[in-house]
Amino acid sequence: MFSGGVTKYAGTSFISTSPCTPKEEETTFWKSMKASREGSLPSGVVLLQVQAGTADNLERQYSSSFAPRLACATSSTASAHCCLGVPSFPPLTARCCLVTRRSVRELDACFREVDKERSVHCVVLSSSGPVFSSGHDLKELKIESGDSAKIQEIFSLCTSVMMAIRRLSVPVIAQVNGLAAAAGCQLVATCDIVLASDKATFSLPGAAFGLFCSTPGIAVARCVPQKMSAYMLFTGNAISAQEALRNGLVSKVVPEDKLQEETDQVVSAIKAKSKSVLCLGKKFYYRQIQMGIEDAYTEGERVMLHNLEYCDSQEGINAFAEKRKPCWEHTDRKI
């Protein structure tokens, strides 16, 4: 499920898709705010939390336009939170109905806004319910007279979100503790790092409903071997977290009760690096995959020389020689 509201805290982004009432949202929000202030959230990590609500909740609490709510209130300290939206309000809510025009449009806007934040080192996508994401809302895909343009918009927006993840300058982590199906599996396959609990499952079941998972298959086929992606697409059968790990769809599988701990460790490892260096690295990593090996090496040499011009690069080398922790600027300022 994708849903639309956002709360952001200093350093990592976290997207949750659990249905809740406005009162429950407020409680969740302030618990998260309190955790950030007390330091239980890693410093330098921006938390972006999306809670699922209803259209009625949204209309009662907020205007229908999402863009004005994306103004950032950024803290001056790395350990403090920053919010997308009005900090004194509970998390923004939106109708949570699988992958819809509205939810995907708002998620795309979230990614674009997050990419502008210098304090964001990575993004974590998660769900607190038994389903990570179950894909498109099939009710929106019924073709009636004059509706084809609207359906095309849904697919185009979904593609836009996937490309936004790939183009996002910082790493995107999927934290999966349930079913990821169809476009939800596509979302997982698009993320840079996937951490799954042993309860997670993954499927491309579209053919069972008469709609082959053509676009989800694009992302999945680029992660797993051809025979496995064909198996998932043609049978619709779900695979376990361990099968997904063996076939390259996920990065690591841990027991359900260790998933958050593992996520925290991965986030901390990312935060310990220079953001500017990781941004450069992510951009080249995906670009070189599309190249021939000789061109990739030629371009890689150029990128490494460019990387060495960063002040953060020289700081890292000096810190290693002096046996101390580096003090990163997290900028691409050159020597």
Description:
The structure is a single chain. The chain has 335 residues and is an alpha/beta fold. The protein has two domains: 7-271, 2-enoyl-CoA Hydratase, Chain A, domain 1 (Alpha-Beta Complex), CATH 3.90.226; 275-321, Lyase 2-enoyl-coa Hydratase, Chain  A, domain 2 (Orthogonal Bundle). It is built from twelve helices and 15 strands. The protein has helices at 22-38, 55-61, 101-114, 148-167, 183-190, 214-221, 226-235, 241-246, 259-271, 275-289, 293-308, 311-321; strands spanning 7-8, 12-15, 48-49, 51-53, 72-73, 83-84, 93-95, 122-126, 131-133, 172-176, 179-181, 193-197, 201-203, 239-240, 252-254. The strands form five sheets. Strands 2-8-10-12-15 form a five-stranded parallel β-sheet, with helices on both faces. Strands 9-11-13-14 form a four-stranded mixed β-sheet. α4 packs parallel to α5 (183-190). Mean pLDDT is 75; it is low at 1-97. It is found in: Mitochondrion. May play a role in fatty acid biosynthesis and insulin sensitivity. Pfam families: ECH_1. Keywords: Fatty acid metabolism, Lipid metabolism, Mitochondrion, Transit peptide.
